[in-house]
Design a protein that fits this description.
Elements: H1 4-10, H2 24-44, H3 50-74, H4 80-96, H5 106-112, H6 115-130, H7 138-161, H8 165-188, H9 194-216, H10 221-225, H11 227-233, E1 249-254, E2 257-260, H12 269-286, H13 289-301, H14 305-322, H15 325-349, H16 353-367, H17 382-388, H18 400-428, H19 433-451, H20 459-482
Antiparallel strand pairs: 1-2
């Protein structure tokens, strides 16, 4: 006879996932091959006109990734390889576009650089149409409402206040990224193992770390490969003295000069450092300690403030969940002390980058009384400033949360306030403690990072965060429904 105690002893860990049919190695290899086919289509069609290239790439995307995802979803199979596809595209996009960027029509280029987001949006539609609604997490409905309100008000404000279409599209993509990718994770949770997805993130991280050390120790790689032409296509600047983007070098003076930062295949130290943190959290969860250590080392070479800030949050959450009150207090004091020390170091040894991020968020708050309904989608932030050099008077830069406040006003505050409160509450109610650490830690780390970092909202940075959170929270809900023993209390 099975006793309560024996059932608790044999209870599988949450990150073991739910039972699904899958052939992990074969499916992953197949999807990786399909991603290569998609990239090949982008490269092969680079000399075509905009309409022709977009038709070729769209058709390849549908055939290579969307239709196979439909078949996989209808069979109820694990969707990890398809969930990883947008992340792989994000991680290596700035490498595979290097040789063809000058040949791509600007209209087509603006779509191709967001192909990771388009792929995720199509996968979300697939899941929404094929998944049973029974047992769906209540968070799905709330996030769907938040997404609908954000979309309606965002584009209404863009029309009312007037906005550059490119800037508005970029702002919209970034603002809805947390909502879209969380929904993706929640809906995929019915058949997808959170641990398998986390393991995939760690594998991608290992590849980007290896590439990062290679590019950091290969002089003139980026210049010879054509980084200037790629950045010109993106309407971004290159430092003339080095032939590299400005953020390839730290704002802090280290050993007498700015340090060349590891940028890896992202060609961006901010995106790379942010991705290193979600990979670090996944590696800790899976007890892949060597990979976790490598993530810390790589983030250090990237001089990633976001990684440092997120790690301090993660340590505080770990102490809250695992340690006694004394250790909890010490962890909080240590985290705050480290943050203060780094701010002091940065203030004394940098060009003011840290202050720009802080001032960007504070500017959103101080401008709110005079713009209570916001400035409109696309009318603040780095892209707007880069086009009109602050002629609109907005000082909101380098803050993702500040961008939401500045562009969407009190409506944005209300929508995303409800969203983040509901997200943290759902994450804190996960039964398994190690899974709760990942869900709560990633949620709070993202929120704090996005407060002082505009690109934290980008799919290149945020996608893996919210897919993993959604999988953990959604799997926990399903497990509770199928096993009454799986009852956890909220983290308070």
């Amino acid at each position: 006879m099975t006793t309560l105690a024996s059932r608790r002893t044999r209870r599988p860990r949450l990150h073991g996932g739910v039972g699904v049919r899958s052939n992990p190695t074969g499916e992953s290899a197949l999807v990786l091959g399909l991603i290569v086919v998609l990239v090949g289509a982008v490269l092969a069609s680079s000399g075509f006109g905009a309409a022709t290239q977009l038709a070729v790439v769209s058709a390849t995307l549908l055939i290579a990734l969307t239709i196979p995802a439909v078949l996989q979803a209808r069979r109820g199979s694990d969707l990890t390889p398809f969930l990883l596809a947008p992340i792989v595209l994000s991680a290596f996009q700035n490498v595979y576009l290097l040789p063809v960027a000058p040949d791509i029509d600007p209209a087509a280029f603006s779509v191709i650089i967001i192909i990771n987001f388009v792929d995720a949006a199509l996968l979300l539609v697939v899941l929404a149409l094929t998944r049973s609604r029974s047992g769906t997490h209540p968070l799905v409905r709330l996030v769907t409402v938040c997404l609908a309100i954000t979309t309606a008000w965002g584009w209404a404000s863009a029309l009312v206040f007037g906005a550059d279409l490119t800037a508005a599209l970029a702002a919209f993509r970034n603002i809805v990224t947390p909502l879209v990718f969380l929904l993706l994770g929640l809906l995929a949770a019915r058949s997808t193992r959170p641990a398998r997805f986390a393991a995939g993130v760690v594998v991608v991280a290992a590849a980007t770390i290896a590439f990062g050390f290679w590019e950091l120790n290969t002089p003139s790689f980026w210049q010879d490969a054509g980084i200037q032409q790629l950045w010109n296509a993106k309407a971004l600047g290159i430092r003339e003295s080095t032939g590299l983007p400005g953020n390839f070098f730290s704002s802090e003076i280290i050993d007498g000069s700015p340090a060349r930062r590891m940028v890896s295949s992202f060609a961006d130290p901010v995106h790379f450092g942010t991705f290193m943190f979600v990979a670090f959290a996944a590696a800790v969860w899976l007890r892949r300690w060597i990979l976790a250590g490598l993530c810390v080392v790589a983030a250090s070479y990237a001089v990633s403030k976001g990684f440092l800030l997120s790690t301090l949050v993660f340590v505080a959450v770990w102490a809250r969940l695992y340690a006694n009150p004394v250790v909890q207090a010490l962890a909080v004091v240590t985290a705050l002390g480290t943050a203060v020390w780094f701010y002091s170091f940065s203030a004394e040894n940098s060009s003011g980058s840290t202050d720009i991020h802080i001032d960007g968020f504070l500017a959103a708050l101080t401008e709110l009384p005079s713009n209570p309904i916001g400035r409109g989608l696309g009318n603040s932030g780095v892209r707007r400033a880069g086009r009109d050099l602050f002629e609109d008077g907005s000082g909101v830069l380098e803050s993702g949360i500040g961008l939401i406040i500045s562009q969407l006003g009190v409506i944005g505050i209300a929508v995303f306030g409800v969203f983040f409160v509901a997200l943290v509450r759902a994450a804190s109610a996960v039964a398994d403690r190690s899974s709760r650490l990942v869900a709560v830690g990633l949620s709070l780390a993202f929120l704090l990072n996005a407060t002082f970092n505009e690109v934290a909202l980008s799919p290149n940075s945020a996608a893996a965060y919210f897919i993993l959170i959604g999988l953990v929270v959604g799997s926990d809900r399903l497990r509770r429904q199928t096993d009454p023993i799986e009852q956890g209390t909220s983290w308070k």
